[in-house]
Design brief:
With 62 residues, the protein is an all-alpha fold. Helices cover 34% and strands 0% of the residues.
Length: 62
């Protein structure tokens, strides 16, 4: 149990966005990866990158 507590205490979440736009190359890499993500349900799933300004979002969303 102590090991679990230490793991929980040691975790960190990084949510800093530096304001730089995603490069075209990185976007293409991410979109290619998203096309091949397997899912355990055996149903079609589509991932889409949304533009924050176009969709009135507070930040870019996957």
């Amino acid at each position: 149990m102590n090991n679990l507590i230490e793991i929980i205490k040691g975790r960190k979440s990084i949510r800093t966005y530096d304001g730089n736009a995603l490069s075209d190359a990185h976007r293409q890499d991410i979109e290619a990866f998203m096309k091949d993500i397997p899912n355990p349900f055996g149903i079609p799933v589509e991932f889409v990158l949304l533009d924050a300004k176009e969709h009135a979002l507070s930040s870019p969303v996957l």
